[in-house]
Specification:
Radius of gyration: 16 Å
Number of helices: 6
Largest sheet: 2 strands, antiparallel
Number of strands: 2
Shape: elongated
Strand order of the largest sheet: 1-2
Helix content: over 70%
């Protein structure tokens, strides 16, 4: 039961960070010798990197809903599939943001951006919990 609650908490945390990332964070940044350059300052394509990072973690709303509806039941292969699709899509979106302007790990851990750091740490931690819950069930 504790593992289910911890998994639910981490997925809800990633989803909440996704929905509020542009509001409470300074946004995605890139390293320059003069200090961090925030991608929102770009006039062309880099300005949407903060939105892409937020959307990457918004996707965890789907596994959150599935887990909420199936809270007292064991983890099904469908639930694992929904989580894996959301996690893979999030990784792809973060990679795409890094191709444009954002340096994800620099933004999260060097500036630091605690919202992004928590979301990045929660991603593998929630996967480990999901595997552990699946093994127990």
């Amino acid at each position: 039961m504790i593992l289910r609650i911890a998994f639910l908490f981490l997925v809800a945390l990633m989803c909440a960070i996704g929905f509020t990332y542009g509001s409470y964070s300074r946004g995605a940044a890139a390293f320059t010798p003069d200090g961090p350059f925030y991608c929102d300052g770009l006039q062309s394509g880099g300005g949407d990197d903060t939105a892409v990072v937020g959307f990457a973690f918004m996707l965890f709303g789907l596994p959150l809903l599935v887990r909420l509806f199936r809270f007292f039941k064991s983890v099904s292969p469908f639930e694992v599939g929904v989580y894996c699709v959301a996690a893979l899509a999030a990784v792809i979106f973060l990679f795409l943001a890094s191709l444009d302007c954002a340096q994800i790990f620099y933004t999260a851990f060097s500036i630091p951006d605690p919202f992004l750091a928590v979301a990045l740490v929660s991603l593998p931690a929630s996967f480990v919990l999901l595997v552990r819950i699946r093994k127990i069930s």
